[in-house]
Amino acid sequence: MANATRLSESETALLKQSRNLAELIAHPGWKVFESLIRHHMSAREMIYLNPIHELEVLHGMDGLTRMAALEHIKGVYNGLKQAISLPQTIVDEAKALRDKSSPDEEDSK
Length: 109
Description:
By secondary structure, the protein is mainly alpha-helical. The protein has helices spanning 9-26, 28-49, 63-101, 103-108. The relative contact order is 0.18.
């Protein structure tokens, strides 16, 4: 541990946050939440992957309004995608930080 790098305050906070998020991801309720979010993502994905002229939800809208509606749907989709991937991303970043900051610990296990 002599070569360990001193962690910044934000890195220490990330490690603490990652422990909580790892517990959240491991909880059975997370799988239910993730499934629900993926269902909502799928519904929006079907809308914006289809040709714009085939989308009944957009009929009656002028071209600019249709484009704004599609951009909104894409934004919601990407927000949902980020919401379910962010906890695992933080856990992965914390693992990489732990590996980087204490390489000697891994050797002693």
